[in-house]
Amino acid sequence: MNIIFNYTDEGEYIGQSVAELDPIEGLPMIPRNATTIAPPPAVAGSVRVFGAGAWSQVVDNRGAWYLPSGQSVQLDKLADAVPAGATRNAPVLPPPVPVLTPRQARLALNAAGLRAAVENAIAAAPQDVKDTWQYATEVRRDDAVLLAMAAQIGITAAQLDQLFTTGAAL
Fold first, then answer.
1. 103: which of 27, 95, 111, 119 lies 20 to 30 Å off by Cα?
2. Alpha carbon of 88 to those of 20, 40, 95, 111: distances in Å?
């Protein structure tokens, strides 16, 4: 029995089979993309590739890679280069910044018993802060005016998070 080792057009090992014998000469027939040279043992993360009459191990970078931005890049060929900074694991992106409507923010402050304190602080604040409170179309958790006002009143980061959690449910 004559074992032959098969590979793709790119040289990647795909398995072995038994060579058929030439009916005239009685010798094994070696088809295209096959060799009688046995491949080396498999190595995790690599593939065995036949080329120039010999087997080699090639790192297999095919599959999904993730850029630091979170964008996914698909590598389909052994020769594809891994983009700079890419990893196999999707990056943990920061959670989105919580955003409330002005109504949700005011109702959350009412529920926490903080509405009067906030209104008093706003009344004593510069006109820009008053205009922001009165005319803003959204209240963002990362807003500089909101953070300064919360610190002035003595609202902690944990309390602010709870206000946004409460407001989002309203």
1. 95
2. 43, 26, 21, 45
CB 146, CB 100: distance < 8 Å:
no
pTM of model > 0.85: no
Kindly give the parts of the chain with pLDDT less than 50: none
Identify the CA nearest to 39 among candidates 53, 25, 26: 53
- Which residue's entry shows tokens 């009067």? 116
Q: Using DSSP bridges, classify how beta strands 54-59 and 63-66 pair: parallel, antiparallel or unpaired.
A: unpaired
